[in-house]
Every structure is written in structure tokens, then in C-alpha cells.
Design brief:
alpha/beta, Glucose Oxidase, domain 1, ten-stranded mixed sheet, two-stranded antiparallel ribbon, 12 strands
């Protein structure tokens, strides 16, 4: 299924909210959509691995990493885990690493940038709670639509 956010916006304007973040596309999958799963962490990716180890069919993981650029929250091993468990994609308000490898993988990831530094491992995070990213509320009752033009959210499944 090809996601074209401009067309979705034109057809469903009143149902959609724009996630107004300046994120970079990584991975071969340029568009993806699914039910939102939320994760709030800060410079600790222990819970990223936990969540992505679960079945992600039809889901997109949205990670509030606090916008930190001091370490990466996703690398090639975690990206492979997401692929293996059928996650539709990942949106991370934080950084990734291993970008060259990730860009050759069949996954869609949006992130603020890259950083070669590993995250710490304190096993701390909050799963399934509402997030607020740059003034936009995101929760697990929403559906997310992502392409190279941007990210849209809706409380009902549109496609």
C-alpha cells in the first residue's frame, strides 16, 4: 500500500493532524502506516528493544527520545529486530546509528539525525502513554501515515 500524505490531507483534512517535526528518512521503506504504539525514553534504548521484540504487524512505534542528539536509540540490530517482528515503521524524536546499514534495509525510520554513540542501558521507559512532540499529542488510539513529505495522525483508520 502506497501512502501519499498530500492526498490523504486533501481528502481527510478534518480528520488529520500534522506532526510538525523536521525528521530525516532512513531505510528503504519511504512510506508506512499503522496503529501508533508509544514509547517515552531518554538516552536509554532498553525499552526500544523490548517493544520491537513483540509482534508489530500493523503498528508503527513512535519514540519520544527527548530530541537528544547525544546518543543513538536505534542501530542496525534493533532495525533488524523490527523487520523480523513485522513492524511497519518507526518514528523517533532522537537519533539512530549504523545509517549506512539501515539505509540498505527494508524498513522505514524517521529520526532527527545520526550519532555514533551507544545509549546507556538503565532499563527505564514508559510504554503506551500519550506523548507530546512539538505541541502535538500522540497516543495509542491514533493511526499514523508517513511518507517523504511528512507525518499525519488520525483517530480513525483512513486507509
Amino acid at each position: 500500500m502506497e501512502i501519499i500524505t498530500a492526498d490523504l490531507w486533501d481528502e481527510y483534512t478534518e480528520d488529520l493532524v500534522l506532526l510538525n517535526l523536521d525528521l530525516i528518512q532512513y531505510g528503504k521503506k519511504e512510506n508506512f502506516a499503522g496503529k501508533v504504539e508509544t514509547l517515552k525514553i531518554y538516552e536509554d534504548n532498553s525499552y526500544v528493544r523490548k517493544v520491537l521484540a513483540e509482534n508489530g504487524k500493523g503498528k508503527v512505534l513512535v519514540i519520544d527520545g527527548g530530541g537528544s542528539k547525544r546518543c543513538a536509540l536505534i542501530g542496525d540490530n534493533i532495525a533488524k529486530l523490527a523487520i523480523d517482528n513485522q513492524w511497519e515503521g518507526i518514528v523517533v524524536y532522537g537519533c539512530i546509528r549504523d545509517s549506512k546499514e539501515i539505509n540498505s534495509m527494508n524498513i522505514g525510520i524517521k529520526a532527527i539525525g545520526t550519532c555514533p554513540v551507544k545509549s546507556i542501558k538503565r532499563n527505564v521507559g514508559i510504554i503506551g502513554e500519550p506523548l507530546i512532540l512539538k505541541g502535538t499529542k500522540i497516543d495509542t488510539n491514533q493511526h499514523i501515515y508517513v511518507d517523504t513529505d511528512g507525518i499525519l495522525l488520525s483517530f480513525r483508520k483512513l486507509i
